[in-house]
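ugh ok fine here u go
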Amino acid sequence: MRFVVAAVVLAEIAGFVLVGRGLGVLLTLLLVVLATVLGAAILRREGGESIARMQHALRTGGDPRPALWRGGFRLAAALLLLVPGFLGDIVALLLLLPPVQRVLARRFAVQGARIVTVRSAHPGEEPPRPPQDRVIDADWEEIPAPKRPTHRPSGWTRH
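structure:
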């Protein structure tokens, strides 16, 4: 794993050098700043929208998984855009494309990623309730808290 991280870091550095040679330092820095701003904008916008899409799907009796996948891919893309580096930016831009999202979602599902099935009631129906045939019978007794002295005992009082 260490070698993979080191290889990615070296590839990102090489990407900076190559882009810097081709476009110049100022334009390279401008691209890095623009990618970071784009990542922050996606992160800010996507959080609330993903939750709203999943809630809407649950309210209407639909499947919330597509909204969950889409939100997860956009979150990953936003985080990759926030980190400086051109290779990460390329991967992030690919993750923003719906066809790439569909392919990856299918691939993750096939490889055994855990998919939670959410059961919800349709509009106008009540959600399923647990069985009511369990009876719990108990007796109770209130036990007062022990009195604790608020001061040290003296020779004049009993504790």
